[in-house]
TrEMBL record:
InterPro entries noted in UniProt: ATP_syn_F0_a_bact/chloroplast, ATP_synth_F0_asu, ATP_synth_F0_asu_AS, F0_ATP_A_sf
Stated name of the protein: ATP synthase subunit a
Transmembrane segments: 20-39, 78-101, 107-128, 165-187, 193-214
Organism of provenance: Hoeflea ulvae
CDD domains cross-referenced by the UniProt entry: ATP-synt_Fo_a_6 (cd00310)
Gene field: atpB
Subcellular location: Cell membrane; Membrane
PANTHER family with a match to the protein in the record: ATP SYNTHASE SUBUNIT A, CHLOROPLASTIC
Function of the molecule: Key component of the proton channel; it plays a direct role in the translocation of protons across the membrane.
Amino acid sequence: MNLSPDQTIMFEIGGIPINATIFYTWVVMAVLTGVSMLITRNLRPDVPPNRWRTMLEVILQGIQGQIQEIAPGPSRHLLYFSGTLFLFVATSNLMLVVPGFEPPTSSLSTTTALALSVVIAVPLFGIISRGLRGYLKTYLEPSFIMLPFNIISEFTRAISLAMRLYGNIMSGAVIGVILLSVAPFFFPVVMDLLGLLTGMIQAYIFAILATVYISAATTPRKSVQPERDTP
């Protein structure tokens, strides 16, 4: 039993082995791109929306609403980034029901790459929003003593993001395989349902945490004013 799709070699291109993680990542990207192109091919004001376009708009409005609750104000670029993360992770986890499909999010290399994209996006969004000097000052808040702790927190965020998503998806797949050997006609259905639920929750948590980290880097901290006694 392979614990990670990294260990499964699908084919080779020019002598370079393509493992299941890379192959199924391409599959998810192709599905997202193909579905988006099909839904938006007649995206004109004079064309009434069909049910697929309505569903896509509902999903995007839901993501935008969640982002607005965390980061009020202009958030179009944040919608692009966090929305893409959510759709990729959610689609990867939902395709678990496809026979033979191994979600790339069950690979530590995929979750690490997603976490690194968040780590890179945080200072980029912070510098764009507050300038280089203003962003670097956040490492000295609330006091310069916090500098090493703030730097360490950046690395721990990446580790926690990667390990949380990888651990939940990988453990679900492993437990499903074990239960499949015990009761092959009952437990797979239950585990697939639990896997779908867990996968959607993890996609939501991953995107929300990325939004929170970016929002913290782009929003100035409010200074806490001491309360004055009223006469």
